[in-house]
């Protein structure tokens, strides 16, 4: 056995470190049985070990070289690990438990709505008829699946108040592009092609990218001191050459546009469209309907608001809902219900912007979202939005005084702080986020939105309990104190992970994506 002492960095406990963590740090004095220095499976190889025994051949042997040719066969894969089945199982099971996710703990990544994905969603999505039907099966054989899409669309229309919807886009950003292309098609048909899209500086970053890809020039409008649209600025910017105002609402500061009615009236009076990035609808579901405050086209992120997996998990889904004026331009095909109750796909829509995604979108996501909607019901969904807003406000007021607020208005679903106070001690938002890892939390979103210098953007969602929020607040309070007492220690965080500070620029620019035997590395 190798004694680990000389391999480990000296143990240094920060001031005020909880007792549990001090104990964990002390484990560095001996190599524990299961530890974070797990070797790669390639490095665990012992010559001669095997995870599987093949049954004796019951057919004549064939030479792969003869069948495939020498260029496609090799006698040995260099570095291929020789390990037992148990070693493989233990290795990957251990690794799976080190993967932080919504099932592990609070995931306060602002602008991402990392809420719990209920197991009922998965259960329903795995039902045989829904999981195994082929998208090219004849309509008559997939009436159930088409019915699910139709019902999901109906629920989302009711939630948003809009007249029509497509479930096709595979993400919020793709939905934005589809929505703006619909505006463009409509204006072109009216003989009024306009050149600009207005986007406030509090919008999500994908908005200007989508508008640009759709062929528009983006004009930025500055927010007021609360982070809302400044009406005087809008009045000035909203010329007859503006196709749409693209508004993230609630915006990236977590603030609801309080003058939304006046804003949409002004945009409409000048012949423009109101696009709402509705990816933050978790704050509004069951409480306010965008159609009622003048929105003409909007998208939803099912992988945020409607509890379908996202991030490194499943595919996304970004339905786009429109008012009747934009309905003819919806992507192909649309699902319709005949008077006899049967469902069909309508491709005969000459004014459509065309197909934006294979088949009818990520069907499994619509199934999960519908399961979530039905499991919660109307009251449950409304409660969800209220709890999400309550949790964000609890964090907002608890952390005020420790970190500088990003906006003077009370937030909706997420709260934003600035690292200004800590920056005076040389510690920036990214350093605080790294230190949070030592406390067992996934970091918040760092340095976004850009209108708040050194932003800490925190979205707890309704999934967090008060106990969990209190632990998170305690961690951030403790880090604020550490910054005062020993900023250098925070600058070197994380201290408890297998690798500590990385050269992030090098990791992004020169990623090592493939393992090589050590003599080749
Ligand atoms: C407000 C907002 N708009 C748009 C997007 C883009 O969505 P997606 O990542 O699915 O493309 C996001 C993503 O989190 C978002 O928060």
Name a few traits of the molecule:
binds pyridoxal-5'-phosphate; 521 residues; 4-stranded antiparallel beta sheet; 7-stranded mixed beta sheet; disordered N terminus; Aspartate Aminotransferase, domain 2; 17 helices
CATH architecture of the largest domain: 3-Layer(aba) Sandwich
Task: Give the ordered list of helices and strands.
Answer: HHHHHHEHEHEHEHEEHEEEHEEHHEEHHH
State the distance separating the first and last CA atoms. Answer: 27 Å
Number of domains: 4
Gyration radius from CA atoms, angstroms: 27 Å
Poorly predicted tracts of residues: 1-11
Q: CATH topology of the largest domain, what is it called? A: Aspartate Aminotransferase, domain 2
Computed structural class: alpha/beta
CATH class of the largest domain: Alpha Beta
């Amino acid at each position: 056995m190798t004694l680990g002492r000389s391999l480990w960095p000296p143990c240094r406990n920060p001031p005020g470190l909880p007792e549990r963590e001090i104990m964990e740090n002390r484990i560095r004095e001996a190599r524990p049985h299961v530890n974070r220095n797990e070797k790669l499976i390639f490095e665990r190889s012992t010559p001669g070990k095997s995870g599987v025994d093949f049954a004796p051949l019951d057919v004549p042997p064939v030479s792969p070289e003869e069948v495939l040719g020498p260029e496609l066969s090799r006698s040995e894969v260099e570095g291929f690990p020789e390990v037992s089945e148990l070693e493989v199982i233990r290795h990957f099971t251990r690794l799976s438990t080190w993967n932080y996710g919504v099932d592990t703990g609070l995931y306060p990544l602002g602008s991402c709505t990392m809420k719990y994905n209920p197991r009922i969603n998965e259960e329903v999505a795995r039902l045989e008829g829904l999981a195994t039907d082929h998208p090219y099966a004849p309509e008559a054989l997939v009436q159930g699946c088409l019915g699910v899409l139709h019902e999901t669309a109906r629920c989302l229309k009711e939630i948003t108040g809009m007249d029509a919807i497509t479930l096709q886009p595979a993400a919020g950003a793709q939905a934005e592009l589809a929505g703006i292309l619909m505006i463009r098609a409509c204006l072109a048909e009216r003989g009024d092609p306009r050149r600009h899209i207005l986007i406030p500086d509090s919008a999500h970053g994908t908005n200007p990218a989508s508008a640009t890809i759709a062929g528009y020039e983006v004009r930025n409008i500055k927010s007021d001191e609360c982070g809302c649209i400044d009406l005087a600025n809008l009045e000035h910017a909203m010329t007859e050459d503006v196709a749409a105002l693209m508004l993230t609402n609630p915006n990236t500061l977590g603030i609801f546009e309080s003058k939304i009615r006046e804003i949409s009236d002004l945009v409409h009076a000048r012949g423009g469209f109101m696009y709402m990035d509705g990816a933050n609808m978790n704050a509004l579901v069951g409480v306010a309907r965008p159609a009622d405050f003048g929105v003409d086209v909007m998208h939803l992120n099912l992988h945020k608001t409607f509890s379908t997996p996202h991030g490194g998990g499943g595919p996304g889904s970004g339905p786009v809902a429109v008012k009747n004026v934009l309905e003819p331009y919806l992507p192909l095909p649309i699902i319709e219900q005949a008077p006899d109750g049967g469902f069909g796909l309508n491709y005969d829509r000459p004014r459509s912007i065309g197909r934006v995604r294979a088949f009818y979108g990520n069907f499994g996501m619509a199934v999960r979202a519908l399961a979530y909607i039905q499991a919660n019901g109307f009251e449950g969904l409304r409660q969800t939005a209220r709890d999400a807003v309550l949790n964000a406000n609890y964090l907002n007021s608890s952390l005020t005084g420790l970190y500088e607020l990003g906006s003077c208005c009370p937030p909706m679903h997420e709260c934003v702080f600035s690292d200004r106070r800590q920056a005076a001690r040389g510690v920036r938002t990214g350093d605080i986020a790294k230190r949070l890892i030592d406390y067992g939390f996934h970091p918040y979103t760092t340095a976004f939105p850009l209108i708040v210098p050194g932003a800490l953007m925190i979205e707890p969602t309704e999934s967090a309990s008060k106990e969990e929020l209190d632990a998170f607040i305690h961690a951030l309070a403790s880090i604020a104190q550490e910054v005062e007492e020993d900023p250098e220690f925070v600058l070197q965080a994380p201290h408890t992970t297998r690798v500590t500070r990385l050269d992030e620029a090098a990791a992004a620019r020169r990623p090592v994506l493939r393992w090589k035997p050590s003599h080749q590395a």
